[in-house]
Amino acid sequence: MDRVNKKTLDIFVADYLPPHADWKSWTHPKTGEVYEVTLSTSTAVSAADFESCFRLIEDTSAEDYKKSSDGWKPRAKKKEMQLLDLKYFLVKHNQKVEGFVSFMPTYEDDYPVIYCYEIHLSSSLQSTGLGSILIGHLEAIGVNIPETEKTMLTCFTSNAQAVRFYEKLGYVKDPYSPPPKQLRNGTKVEAAYVILSKPIER
Ligand SMILES: CC(C)(COP(=O)(O)OP(=O)(O)OC[C@H]1O[C@@H](n2cnc3c(N)ncnc32)[C@H](O)[C@@H]1OP(=O)(O)O)[C@@H](O)C(=O)NCCC(=O)NCCS
Prior knowledge:
The chain has helices spanning about 1-5, 10-15, 45-65, 75-80, 130-145, 160-170, and strands at about 25, 35-40, 85-95, 95-110, 110-120, 150-155, 170-175, 180, 190, 195-200. It is built from six helices and ten strands. The chain has one domain (about 1-200): Gcn5-related N-acetyltransferase (GNAT) (Aminopeptidase), CATH 3.40.630.30. Coenzyme A binds near residues 60, 119, 128 and 162.
């Protein structure tokens, strides 16, 4: 995976993305508007685009973070978003980021995986099929990186809409997902988040 992450973006695209340019744009099924889709390394994402991505996370998920024991930590989130080996598919309209997915080919519990760090769409882009298309891009990259075994992600259990979305795409609870906590009185409490994964099929 180190070898994969060390490739320049052009080589990464040539080696792992579909040869056709279909992924470079997306048409909103309800409005007919055409959106530009780009792939960038985290270091190449502009400060303005990072800020738009951060605002999307804040809008869609800050409440879920606040409810969790870790809480909502903007500084830590911004730092995580800039991890060197992360890549971003940005979905833009009139130069403004309206949705994105960030991911990293990496090892998780010794398994080579494509880890989806974030996927967030503005409300006007939700329930349009775009989320499925973006996750499909990560799965396609996984298929093309020979050693990759699964696509993986973490989701708040409180985010029922997202959990349903992943289940519909064939994701199931990963064996490494945290088990429910057992309280002193014996009651089991579900963990705040679930790790979901889907095997790569070649
Ligand atoms: C979770 C998320 C990424 C899913 O993306 P999405 O585009 O909304 O999801 P889909 O691609 O599956 O589309 C969902 C719905 O659109 C419908 N849809 C799919 N293609 C469509 C099309 N071409 N035209 C109209 N509707 C369509 C699907 O039927 C589906 O509806 P259903 O679930 O009621 O059957 C997105 O909703 C989102 O950004 N949510 C907020 C942030 C978030 O929770 N992120 C996840 C953190 S783990």
